[in-house]
Amino acid sequence: MDMNALVAQAKSSTAALENQTEARGGGDFEHEVPPAGFTPARFIGYIELGKRKQRPYQGKEKPDAEEVRLEFELNGPKHQRKVVVDGVEQTFTNRIAIKITKKITDRGSFFKLMTKMLYGRESITHMAQLLGEGFLIQIRHEEGEKDGKKRIYASMRDTDGNFMIGAPVVVDPLSNESRPVPVPEPTQAVKLLLWHAPTMEQWNSLFIDGSRTFKDEKGVERTVSKNWLQEDIVQNALNYEGSALQALLGGVGSLDLDPTPSATASEPATTVATAAAATTPAATVAAATAAPPAAAAGADDLMASLGFK
What we know:
13% of the residues lie in helices and 29% in strands. The chain is an alpha+beta fold. It has one domain (3-296). Strands 1, 2, 3, 4, 5, 6, 7, 10 and 13 form a nine-stranded mixed β-sheet that branches.
């Protein structure tokens, strides 16, 4: 299914979606950090991950909460990189992903991000309706740690935690006049999953074909699926059992997944994660991570060359 069809699903599902503008009470290639600075970007992924376990806060347990994965293609000139795949040079665009708790409160990060992405528009009530739209994003580098090693990560937040995203315009500091920033069309496929209104087209948009081989900590060669995103949802969503997604997939059997952390498929290194993934037993769904029909294949194909229009 193409981008326009998925975006149309997001916009036509309004009746089944909550209003996210009304506050309620209460990163398979070597890691390469996207350059810091301003860049045009396209919103290409809105994936509701279901309810997840949360990290404790100040020593106290936090209640389980719904999470969502957001993906942006950074398609400015600085974010093109050349990679040789099977002897052929391919052009890649950088991508940044955020995993965030979907709390629609005026103090919640999700609501604040939604507000910035709307930049004053009132006709849009759900973030998925913004899929395919262009934005101006500022990338900042920050230091983190993974596997005991210090690493540099790309972030869309400033040092106070505010999201650095807005309308694709720049303002002349002298004349105070605004001018639009050209945002190239996306080269990566749009992903969409609405937890309470899923379709097979949405589910297939998450599929990642292929497998990868690596050596574990004991030096044993292992092969795992690259289809980490569908597997993560089926395994780790605490409310998968009895959900609309489980009813949609309707499979029987079990996923053939190795439960050891080193053997599970991992998400791309450019992801910026803001919440910890839970670890729960694998759900029993046979068709859940099967390859989609040929028309929907390559939903996460990063091999497309960048096309400026």
